[in-house]
Amino acid sequence: MTDAIRPLIAGNWKMNGLKSSLGEFEAMIAGAGALAGKADLLVCPPVTLIAGFADRALGSKLAVGAQDCHAKASGAHTGDLSAEMLADAGAGAIIVGHSERRADHGETDAVVRQKAEAAWRAGLVAIVCIGETQKQRDAGQTLDICGGQLAGSLPDGATAANLVVAYEPVWAIGTGLTPTPKDVEQVHRFIRDVLTSRFKEGSKIRILYGGSVKPSNAAELMAVADVNGALVGGASLKATDFLAIAEAC
Ligand SMILES: O=C[C@H](O)COP(=O)(O)O
């Protein structure tokens, strides 16, 4: 972890959570204050919960974000949500280009880039996800794939304040498998090099690791050079686990 960069622990609830999850979220708020010296904390619940959670989190050290947005600000796009709507509901950040969206909805790098631009247009932070599949990894293509996704998905004009990059090896998501710290370091260093060569503030943009992060492996992963926090899926649904991961920063 780079000392100068404040870590971010972001929870992606994916398609999980009902109104009855408010208690779990309140437990996260209760624990977030004590962790403010260590990391920024963000929870991205399903859209149905964003406004309620954001209202509840007002004045706390826990921010609320979204998991996706449409590229346009408004219009005839049934069922979609714009970044402006998500900002209006209380989101401070939007995850874009998650591998599940790329796989389930055929989102290309170009679409992801437009969505990141939409987040910026609405004044929100874009958390852009990249990562290779098992097949690509086995073929020795990890850096090529990540490089291509970075080139295609990141808009011009990124700053340390408006962009977070999340490296999520697809094969590590929800599987309990994680790359070795050495492997994580290699990819994060590569991402850092890409960011510093392209953006003036590239050395300060946060790079998160995601994929089966849990309390038992968080300290080891967060200690890796150029790992500036985590994008947490399953373990972010439980306050005790989510807070324990932040505690490891
Ligand atoms: O966005 C989060 C990632 O997909 C990681 O999910 P996971 O922690 O359940 O493996």
From TrEMBL:
Pathways per UniProt: Carbohydrate degradation; glycolysis; D-glyceraldehyde 3-phosphate from glycerone phosphate: step 1/1; Carbohydrate biosynthesis; gluconeogenesis; Carbohydrate metabolism; erythritol degradation
Enzyme Commission number: 5.3.1.1
GO biological process: gluconeogenesis; glyceraldehyde-3-phosphate biosynthetic process; glycerol catabolic process; glycolytic process
GO cellular component: cytosol
Signal peptide residue numbers: none
Compartments (UniProt record): Cytoplasm
Catalytic activity field: L-erythrulose 1-phosphate = D-erythrulose 4-phosphate; D-glyceraldehyde 3-phosphate = dihydroxyacetone phosphate
Primary localisation category: cytoplasm
Pfam families listed in its UniProt record: TIM (PF00121)
Catalytic residues of the enzyme: 98, 168
Residue positions binding substrate: 12-14, 174, 212, 233-234
Job of this protein: Involved in the gluconeogenesis. Catalyzes stereospecifically the conversion of dihydroxyacetone phosphate (DHAP) to D-glyceraldehyde-3-phosphate (G3P).
Record-linked NCBIfam families: tim (TIGR00419)
Similarity field: Belongs to the triosephosphate isomerase family.
Name by which UniProt lists this protein: Triosephosphate isomerase
Organism: Bradyrhizobium icense
Gene that this sequence comes from: tpiA
